[in-house]
Sequence to fold (369 residues):
Amino acid sequence: MISKNKKLKYKKTLGKILEPFALGVLALLFIIPAITVINLEPITKKVTDVLGVTTNSELIFDLVGGTHEIVSAEKIYKEENGDYTYSAILTKRASDFYSKPIIKIINNTEDEKTLTFLGTTLNPTRSEIGLIIKDQAYKLQRANGESQKVEILLRPQSEYLVYLTVESVVGVQFSEEFEMKISQN
Amino acid sequence: MSILLKKTLKLSILPAILMIAGKFVGVIALIIIYDLPFDVGNQINGIFSTQIFLSNNTDTLFVNSFSDLAMIVVLGIPTLYMILNTAVLQSSKTNPRTIAKVVKFNMLKWVTGTNSTFLRIFLWSSFVLISSIITISNTLQGDTYRWIGITAGVVSLLCVWGLIKTFENETDKVYPNNKKHSYY
Fold:
């Protein structure tokens, strides 16, 4: 009789100790599937073979990706005419200077290639948008919304990391879409 | 540990597994059926670093959309089935017409053999809601077809509506609605 009571007491105490852990497990049962499903979403990227060598293009555009304070929902895709389009959402931000590596361009050919970048936001937001390539800064869109072409020369067998820069003189209180066309001359 | 917590843990496992399985099987099945070139690699983008890469944007949109749909269907159909089952059972308890119809269509066993409780419907509806939020957010980002986002929204609204109805029925058992009974 005593041992039965003791057993019950132990069971009760163990139950009390386990309860917070059980609540944690319950929360995880909701969180883990959600994170897994988000992570299972496929991403567009040049598919490489087993040796890690890209086989289907001479000029390669790789999206850098990752997370950033103001740049989100980044995408890069090839148009039917062979041009590439990079798009992203610039979220609301305080007045500051922001930069993020967005695309890695690899020229696998033996020739020099010239690329033209033309990027703009749908509405002018008094933000200066530009690119930094090999420590050289280029202006894509001025604060008044006026956009201009940027031309860069790619040397043969070389790699370039393209940074997107956003300089806001005043805080921007809404998100905006940014789109940049990349064409080969 | 409370019985409610134990039961909740037990009942949450199946929808959690089905949610992941729906998405995973959807992605893999589409890649195999349409023979799409794919790669599994590492990218510091999400919480887990391993991700599936597809070669172009059209394939990515297609695979992501239909795998989202598979996940919604896998969770939505059982949830709506449980809600319907409970609704018919509740209605047959109060309405003689329903019980007559249930007998006529030989569905008595289907209705009485139900194990759909409010807790089970609540948990399944929660998973439907989570999957719908993910699908709708994908639609807003342009990663899923719009009609799939709308379908997810409609399914989740139906599940929430069904859940509220079930809750009303359950509370009616404790606090009966006087107006509904003819003997008052």
Notes: The two ends of chain A are 92 Å apart (CA to CA). Residues 130 and 139 of chain A are 4 Å apart (CA to CA).
